[in-house]
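Bench notes, afternoon.
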Amino acid sequence: MFFKRIADLRIDNDLTQQNIADYLGCKREVYRRYETGIRTIPIDFLIKLADLYGVSIDYLLEHTQKNTDAVSQLKKKCNDIKEQKNE
């Protein structure tokens, strides 16, 4: 799986693969393989990348279109659950 959003976010923020590899604590070639989908990205690296770019993991994995959509959907689900418990 090619992680286009991870590459796009890196480029949009004027970062190199080496910058991100240093941030994650891995070699540039390892990070390149994550970005191109040759290797599976460990969940702890996905969390770090989501934190770095201020987006959700769902957004990085192209599960949602916008980060704000995922956050608002989660808040709505949590509120619905709270309301059901209070009934």
